[in-house]
Amino acid sequence: MITDKNNREVKEGDTIEFTNTFIPYKVVLKDGLLGSYENGEFIALKDCLRNFAITNR
Q1: In whole angstroms, what is the distance from residue 11 CA to residue 3 CA?
Q2: 12 near 23, Cβ under 8 Å?
Q3: Rounded to whole angstroms, how far apart are CA atoms 46 and 28?
Q4: Which residues touch 12 (CB under 8 Å, ≥6 apart)?
Q5: pLDDT, tens digit, for every residue of 27-55?
């Protein structure tokens, strides 16, 4: 289970914002990992250390 900085569970289809950029990203599932794409590169949320917040469900 992946949670955001407010301890809310992240699900596929959620929109998140990373703390530093405040740019909205759509959460997708790729190879069993939740993440998002930035500039064509997949970013797995498990590697982001809860440095993001859910903005829309």
Answers
A1: 9
A2: no
A3: 13
A4: 27, 28, 29, 34
A5: 999 999 999 998 999 999 999 888 999 99
